[in-house]
Amino acid sequence: MNSVTPLAFSAQPDDLKFAYWVPNVSGGLVVSKIPQRTSWDLEYNIRLAQIAEQAGFDYALTQIRFIGSYGAEHQHESTTFSTALLAATRRLKVITAILPGPWHPGVVAKLGASADQLFGGRWAVNVVSGWFQGEFEALGLPWLEHDARYRRSREFIQILKGIWTEDNFSFKGEFYQINNFTLKPKPLQTPHPEIFQGGNSRAAQENAGTVSDWYFMNGNTPDGHRAQIETVSSLARRSRRWVRFGANAFVIARDTEREAWAELEAIIAHADAEAVGAFGTAVKQAGQASPEGKGMWQDSQFRDLVQYNDGFRTNLIGTPEQIAERIVRLKRLGVNLILCGFLHFQDEVAYFGERILPLVRQLERALPEIDAAPA
To answer: CA 247 to CA 232: how far, in whole Å?
Structure first.
């Protein structure tokens, strides 16, 4: 059931990239009690990574949680889990989520350099500024105010890049100090491993424009994604930089549109209402603490919050043909990567590779003709 057919189209440099959320926490990617053929254990995830690699996925993103919460009661640590997936694959890149506060940037620089060297330049990092106050309190760590968390993340990324690209690196900031530090060996990738981040607030977008390589966006409408891309791109131009964009989407692909929408409604009907409500309260409080009162999840409704990162809103729900067309529309908006979640990961990643990715590549090849056609 999990076998996939090799892609008929060879990859091109400007092709859309595809990533999937690694289910290294229990409960999958939805706060719902609906039955799922998904597991958070290592054996399942190794097989999933191999299926994804064969299906044509470029990246896997491991999640970071320190304590159980909102239906995700068990979790494997992200850096260790990432290296296990790297060891079981040959082409797939693995993005490791890291949370400043519990992690020190010098330690992550060392860990990342070793992983990159050992696994052929396939390690990347997602710097998560943090939304879950309970984790920090449980670990006895200070819970910084919203913009301070993003200032810390900016220093964290600056230090990663400095250690990875310079000898005798020093840094004195608000949160970290590095004294004449030289890392050997440095990462295999040049100039350094890819650095991802997310967040909807002004502070998050300024970080993306100033220091990050990739900006992850929560699920959204086309207009919502376009606005974020325009804002972050404008900020990046001020620093003479170029940022790439990833859009989160929960994919429900079925042979008929009716089947796909019925699956979505079943997920929502089985939602863990108490956990969804508690999650919504926590994340909205985190965003409202920004000076402009606008962060991730601020306009999310109950049904949006059933998927942690608003993945239903991107509307990759329907037949393979409908989903492929919507994916290519996202590319035309400026999206460079689709970050996918699924209900039944192994089966649906394989289906995505068999039925959707070839259609996307075919539509991508036709894009110059489409864009040149009269309106």
So the answer is: 14
